[in-house]
Design a protein that fits this description.
alpha+beta; 6-stranded antiparallel β-sheet; 6 helices
Length: 166
C-alpha cells in the first residue's frame, strides 16, 4: 500500500477532490479527510451523520463545519470529532479517523507515521492542519498512486506527496 497526501486551503476544494476520486473508482476505505474544527464543537468523539448537508465554503464559516465535512466526504465512513493535543478539536472522515481516535496522544503526525509518512513530514502536515488546512489522505495500491496524486493536484491540493509502496 502507498499513501498519497495533499493539503487543501478549504473544504469546498477538498470536497471536489473527494468527488473526483470517487468517480475514478476510489473507495471509502481509501480516502480520509482531516480538518481543524474552528468552532471547537467537536471536542469529544461524537459521531456525525455522513449524510449531513454541505452548507459552507470555508472551515471558518461556523457550526455547519462538522455537518459540512460529513456532506463533503458524505461518501466516507467514520466521520467524527476528536480532540488532538497541541491542535485542538479536529473533524476526521474515513479510515484515518479510526487510527487517530486510537492514538490521540501521538497527534496527527503519529497517525501519519503509521501510514508510512516520515515523522518530519507528518509534523509539517500537522502544522498545515493547525493553520486551517484540510488534509486529504489516500491509502491505495501502488498502481493507483498516480491517479490519486493527479486528482488531488487538479483539484487544488498543495504539497502532494506519495509515501510507502510495495
Amino acid at each position: 500500500m502507498s499513501t498519497v497526501i495533499g493539503v487543501f486551503t478549504d473544504i469546498s476544494t477538498a470536497e471536489e477532490a473527494v468527488k473526483a476520486l470517487r468517480e475514478k473508482g476510489f473507495k471509502d476505505n481509501e480516502i480520509s479527510i482531516l480538518a481543524k474544527d474552528e468552532q471547537g464543537g467537536g471536542s469529544g468523539s461524537q459521531d456525525m451523520e455522513a449524510g449531513d448537508d454541505f452548507g459552507t465554503d470555508s472551515i471558518a464559516d461556523g457550526t455547519a463545519w462538522g455537518g459540512a465535512l460529513g456532506g463533503a466526504a458524505g461518501l466516507l465512513a467514520g466521520v467524527g470529532a476528536l480532540a488532538i493535543p497541541g491542535i485542538g478539536p479536529i473533524i476526521a472522515a474515513g479510515p484515518l479517523a479510526g487510527v487517530l481516535s486510537g492514538a490521540v496522544t501521538g497527534g496527527v503526525a503519529g497517525g501519519l507515521i503509521d501510514l508510512g509518512i516520515p515523522e518530519e513530514r507528518g509534523r509539517q502536515y500537522e502544522e498545515n492542519l493547525k493553520q486551517g488546512g484540510v488534509l486529504a489522505v489516500i491509502e491505495t495500491s501502488s498502481d493507483k498512486v498516480n491517479d490519486a496524486s493527479s486528482i488531488l493536484r487538479q483539484n487544488g491540493a498543495k504539497d502532494v506527496e506519495t509515501h510507502g509502496g510495495n
